[in-house]
Amino acid sequence: MKKMNRRSFIKLSTVAMAAASGTVYTSKAKWTEAASKTPPSITRSFSVCNSCGNRCNIIAFKRQGRLWRISGNPRDNKTGGKICARGHAYAAMVYDRYRLGTPLKRMSNGFEPISWEQAYEEISDKLKDILRKNGPEAIFWSEYSKPISNFYGARFMAALGSPNWTTHASTCFAARNVGFNHTLGGLPTGDYENTKYVVFIGRAPADGIGTSILKGLPMAKQKGAKVVAVDPRLSYSANSLANEWMAIRPGTDLALLLAWIHIMIKENLYDREFVSKHTVGFSDLEAAVSQYTPAWAAGITGLPEEQISRVVKEMAAAKPAAFVEPGWHAAYGSNYRNSTQTARAIAIINALLGNLNQPGGLCFYSGANLGSLDSSRHQAPPNSPYKRVDGAGVAGKYPLALGSGLHHLLPGLAKEGKFKAGFFYSINPARTVPDREYVVSGYKNLELSVVIDWQFSETAEHVADYILPESHPLERDGIVEPISARMPQVSMQSKAIEPVHPGARGLDRIVTELAQAMGFGRYFDFKLDDLNKAMLFPLKLFPVHLQQRGPQVAGGAWDYGQTMFRTPSGKVELASGTFAEHGFSKVPIWESPLIEPSSGEFRIIHGHQAYLTHSQTINNPYLVSIAKDYHGEAIWINSKKARELGIADGSDVIVSAKGYENKVRCKVTERIHPEAIFVPAGYGSFASKLERGFELGISMNDFVPHASEDISGHAMMQEAVVSIRKA
Ligand SMILES: Nc1nc2c(c(=O)[nH]1)N[C@H]1C(S)=C(S)[C@@H](COP(=O)(O)OP(=O)(O)OC[C@H]3O[C@@H](n4cnc5c(=O)[nH]c(N)nc54)[C@H](O)[C@@H]3O)O[C@H]1N2
Ligand SMILES: Nc1nc2c(c(=O)[nH]1)N[C@H]1C(S)=C(S)[C@@H](COP(=O)(O)OP(=O)(O)OC[C@H]3O[C@@H](n4cnc5c(=O)[nH]c(N)nc54)[C@H](O)[C@@H]3O)O[C@H]1N2
Ligand code: SF4
Ligand SMILES: [Mo]
Fold first, then answer.
1. For burial by CB atoms within 10 Å, which of 401, 488, 591, 642 has the most?
2. Is 609 within 8 Å of 697 (Cβ atoms)?
């Protein structure tokens, strides 16, 4: 393959497209010339990008039967038609020689290809045996939450009688959602386009790409909006989008937020009318924050007192068209002991700004009203009578955890013998969950592990007994999915090309056939198309409309002003009775991170890069070329600390923690807090068959111990310190 340089990085879409067609264009002019001569045999299909959680609508162009290129779909209200480098590079996966094309079974000397019939027969025999001996609680399903598996994975578990359908949430956004649910009754979205002031707390939307933010925020900035980034690191996002950087000590965001609440109340900067009409618990909050002065917060966060006070005053002056962004993963999704209360504090500040459902504030947009299968014609499996084995939602364990479970706990439970069989769909816990040894050795105790993937991930190589190849998303239809926006829409991943590997199958088919082999076929007596028709019925739409025209409007335009909160009191809960009932502080109060770096140690922090998705892109030819050309694998260290340690920019360092060490390139920069080192996500692959990015860089998960936070039960992915020395 032609090696990429800086110029071809900029022209990534051209290159990805050219690769699919077999031609390489060396300049934009040549490409434009070629494109203008495009033969009429080009056809378009409408689909959805499957390469990250944004699920942008795309248009797939086909030339002479082959996928030629991908573009965004301008009719997608969330993206406005823009897609990212990963979306473009998605085309390369289709014809990649590394794709899995047939079911595989682990033998003593490696994996052996088997037929689907043999795979179904052996997997269902083993499952029946486990059901008989251990009951349905001993089986789990684990997935990166996707529309197709939210339906088929959950229904398959219900059909078996298992309560253990699980998603990736406890290593992503769990604390954020629990905090927001128990304060505002749900998770609102920023009205970026119309805002005057936004504060991002550890959210880097042009690194960990958030398409709706990137669509709206530039418009607001053109109208004069101010953007503040609170981050121990000056991310690429903050560097290009923010007016001001607050270089906070990692893990101390809660102190900053408590001081902001203190100042807003003390100086009467909050929306009194909103607070009296729509909130409960104000006096508890006021009493709790009286001690959190800006001087106190300056001592903990390392931020100047002047900056702490000024930013909150500026934000309050812009209210209600001002908000603290609800975040996703990084600062408080699943990182620290104090993450859930940090999320509560952010939700509370937004309520004090009176910005909920206001122009330029945080809005609860409506989604499409979708139908479901007629249960009188298609028998639905009953809900499992058992409690979740991971303890999510279970009294005495993690009663407030999300219903989608705690997937980072599953390996330990497998080791204890509580789980005997597990399914892994579109998830790679061997690389993306902290503590590789805990994860891999825990899962090896399973009597049956089935990985459904399209490539040979770490989990496939090191854990699976059976690997079932799923077809590429552009080779199959998906399930109807709602797009929540001011004008709600529905969209659907739809088939754009004939399968390159006819031996791979879609999840709907895999689950249906496995259920039939198990004797549960009655719960899957419909086709995906029947399900999609039932979902679209209330909207008077058919799948063919989405297939032929892309995303469709689904219901009337949403308007500002509605104030309905799905909390027990129906109001914003500044003090949460539910938290108090379960023994947690009903208002956020200061709690330090669990682990503090001592002298000579650094806290490990991480974040995404615009051109990689978690572990899954490390073998993508274009994306890994960008990573290599730009040394994306380099960890970041503060210049002053580097000088003290004699470390030069671009040199190799040894990162070590508790008996484990690894070598990696180092970027020396002023752009990171001296107490932290930044480890980019997506590296440190130990999937030996994914050769292009194998062992490039390091993964922070090799240094982070297995641990759970008390309230949401999430993994604590930044409660870890490391030492650094010259290599
Ligand atoms: N070190 C480190 N760990 C992290 C993070 C981090 O930043 N750094 N981030 C955390 C976050 S925010 C998240 S959300 C999680 C994500 O955790 P994962 O979901 O485990 O991450 P991915 O790398 O996206 O792995 C997905 C797997 O699914 C496969 N796959 C992709 N698409 C499909 C499909 O359509 N069908 C099938 N069958 N398989 C598919 C991919 O090949 C890959 O093996 O990781 C968390 N863990
Ligand atoms: N390119 C790309 N885009 C993606 C993804 C991807 O894999 N690749 N994954 C998607 C998914 S699943 C998710 S969850 C989102 C994640 O997107 P984000 O939630 O934005 O998460 P990150 O990119 O992990 O980190 C954002 C910033 O948090 C900072 N940070 C770390 N620790 C702290 C702290 O203690 N305090 C503060 N204030 N800041 C801190 C980091 O320095 C980093 O700049 O991205 C989504 N979009
Ligand atoms: S942000 Fe990029 S990778 Fe994610 S769905 Fe959109 S185009 Fe695909
Ligand atoms: Mo995530």
1. 401
2. no
User: Could you state, in chain order, the average pLDDT of each consecutive group of 10 residues for the chain (727 residues)?
Assistant: 43 43 64 64 93 95 91 93 94 94 97 98 98 98 97 98 98 98 97 98 97 95 98 97 98 98 98 97 98 98 98 98 96 97 98 98 92 96 96 97 98 98 98 98 98 98 98 96 90 95 97 98 98 97 95 91 90 98 98 96 97 97 97 98 98 95 98 98 97 97 97 98 97
CATH assignment of 601-726, among 3.40.1010.20, 2.40.10.10, 2.40.40.20, 3.50.50.60: 2.40.40.20
Expressed in angstroms and rounded, the spacing between residue 234 Cα and the centre of ligand 2 is: 12
The pLDDT score that the predictor gives to residue 24 is 60
What per-residue confidence (pLDDT) applies to 7?
45
Nearest ligand, CA 239: 2
The CA distances from residue 556 to 212, 553, 656, in Å, are 20, 8, 56
Domain spans of the chain?
Answer: 2-93, 104-171+387-553, 174-363+561-581, 601-726
Residue with tokens 């459902």: 357
**DSSP-assigned states of every residue in 16-83:** HHHHHHT---SSHHHHHHHHHT--TT-EEEEEE--SSTT--EEEEEEETTEEEEEEE-TT-TTTTT--
Q: Using the mean position of ligand 4's atoms as its centre, give its distance from the Cα of residue 630 in Å.
A: 24
Ligand nearest to the CA of residue 145, numbered in listed order: 1
Q: Let me know if domain 2-93 sits in CATH 2.20.25.90.
A: yes
As a CATH number, domain 104-171+387-553 is: 3.40.50.740
Residues whose beta carbon lies within 6 Å of some atom of ligand 1: 50, 144, 168, 171-172, 329, 425-429, 432, 452-455, 457, 470, 473, 606, 608, 613-616, 681, 699-701
Residue of 472, 614, 633 best suited for mutating to test ligand 1, as the one with most atoms within 8 Å of CB: 614
User: How high is the pLDDT of residue 578?
Assistant: 98
